[in-house]
Predict the structure.
Amino acid sequence: MKYAKLNIKVADSKAPYFIGSQVRGAFGYALKSVVCINPTKECNGCESCQKCLYYEFYENKNVYHKYRFDFLLGNSNYDFDFYLFGDVIGYLPYCVTAFYRLFTQIGLGKERRKFVDFEMQVNGRSCYKNGSLKVLENFSLDIKIPPFEREIVLEFLTPLRIKKYNSFLRYGEGLELKDLINSIYQRQMKILGRDFKKFPYEIKGEIYGRNLRFLELSRHSNRQKVMMNLGGLVGRVCIKNLNKESYEVLRLGEYLGVGKQCVFGLGKIRVEEIEK
């Protein structure tokens, strides 16, 4: 599976505890200013909407989006990654241009603060220097899975929102390995444009050493004029007796995210080896 990663760091900035909704909303505004050819029309009434990147990322409903924001909670400055997957990777230059316009011309936050001194890197290579963008080529990478480990620590770094019996999990005791594997695998299938199918291998592994709590988060939806809940489970668990197939899916989840609303940066996980 292929991906591209854009990293942005703004040193002299003050970020909110959870940047996902703010940055995604601001990026959408900037992206529309870059790609929209009919700005006076509503998206659903535009004859070009099916070929519009903004429409695909923001207006197209009931789809698995092929991008996500990735960051840690509580960073003092804006420091985040932006992932693209599959057939939208080729649109990365438009995304780079949108972020550049966001930070230098539009501004971020209620104060519309603009920045000149920031870093932008595509897959570790700088694409912004001395106030100018640099054109990069060959920015598609293959996801590489580290060697198999039978026992791991799995960290949930931003809220994990997984539904079980029609309700979001609020207690770690209800979380099962199959919930995680199936969530990641189905997200992979949707991004690849494939039909739903059951995970084709046995899911093997035992969760122990649970240290999870429910973190309340919310965001204000300017479109719907309501507060939306983004809370979920954070913390860590240990998993032993994993099989190779389950391990590889968890590693894939480090890129794709797990659970609902991954585009906002939710469901960020990290797999760590257990020191022996």
